[in-house]
Amino acid sequence: MKGSIVSALADFLLLNRVFIGYSGGVDSHVLLHACAALLEFKSKITAVYIHHGLQKEADAWAIHCQKIAENLGVSFLELRVNATANQGESPEESARDARYSAFKNLINENDVLLIAQHREDQLETVLLQLFRGSGLRGLAGMPERIPFGKGNLVRPLLNIGKEMINAYALENKLVWIEDPSNQSSIYDRNFLRQEIIPHLKQRWQSLDKTVARTATHCAEAETLISKIAQTEFETVFNVDDETLNIPKLVTYSQTEQRLILRQWFEFLDLKMPSQDFVQRILKEVVGAKSDRHPILHKKGVTIRRHKSKLVILRDGLPSDIKHQR
Questions:
Q1: CATH number for the domain that contains residue 24
Q2: Burial class, 214, CB count within 10 angstroms (exposed 0-12 / middle 13-18 / buried 19+)
Q3: Would you state the pLDDT for residue 3?
Q4: Which of 26, 109, 179, 229 is geometrically suited to a Cys-Cys bond with 259, CB 3.0 to 4.6 A?
């Protein structure tokens, strides 16, 4: 456990602060406890509890987390967020977005955020993406390390099984919070965890390991494809106004055009569009006659055509051609 953490942090030659996402659950408690035992990092650690305000016990959980942090001799920070779901947004998605947004505002240069997701979490993530019809990027699951805010996000337990985490907790006599919402199968991830994966593991006991390996293969393939997409994207991207050149875009195949559009969304830090929405952009906007001015709207963005350019506007921004970020 501790070896995985040391290895995950070894590449950061300049390490300022280490934030640990600490919900009080067994996974994050194990991560915090293991990190606090590493004297070379202990003075840099801050346990961060995100108060979503969705559970009546949240105030008591915050107090519990603060006491645990104090007992371990590390700093503690409570952040309150608005996790109310917007129309068309799931409660899980809303809470996750609010949580990561709060974390991102904390992270400065040479800071690291540690999250306690493990191999079974990766299994659940890949299965959910598979059932939602995701492409390679979704099937790649969660990366062990990514740039985040001005620093980095690291998942040092991603290759560790849940059994080992539970064994560590029992061996060290840890006391953790059991969130009652984790027992509700109304949430997709809980349904998989409680109803589906146990049956799968009866047949394929090493399922979490093999799916994690598949996710790694998909991540490697996605990296190669992204490099190709970036090269093609740069040939049609107008740097001055962040639009796409339609005459150049249509010289590529339909597959390449879809890759370019997704690369465009990623560059603009927008939520990745669905396959259906990408296809509608190509058919209804890019494929429209030059004398027409179609507008396509969905989930906070408007896609329109202006002369030979493809334009994205975030809702609420002035309808000018230059995209302001």
A1: 3.40.50.620
A2: middle
A3: 82
A4: 229
